[in-house]
């Protein structure tokens, strides 16, 4: 917990240090334009995120068997990359580019088609534990003169 808090405190200073070092090498106007363009890219990504999420979901549902967890989380990664592009600084831009890389993660098996129901050929587990019998319900009758309401 302390490490996360420390990273959150150091992050703005690291962004400023990287921007100043880059401005020293290529010039202040170029760095300003780079930050402005990355912010515009982040805004564009966030505005067009809904369409991308729908297209991604549609393509995942059309796949037959193996779906990657990273492909399911693509809309979330895309939106987070847009937010990171909106933040001024090169470290956040580098993190956003890393989020947009097409990394293929572990697969998730999706079951397609209707689920088979229990049948006589393959009974569900524990089906042999059924005890058949008859029963009758016996209700106690209230005493005369006293009615339940």
Automatic annotation (TrEMBL):
Residues 115-126 have a biased composition (Pro residues). Keywords: Membrane, Transmembrane, Transmembrane helix. GO terms for cellular component: membrane. The chain crosses the membrane at residues 26-46, 78-101. Residues 134-143 have a biased composition (Basic and acidic residues). Coiled coil: none annotated. Residues 109-149 are annotated as: Disordered. This is Membrane protein FxsA. The lineage of its organism: Bacteria, Pseudomonadati, Pseudomonadota, Betaproteobacteria, Neisseriales.
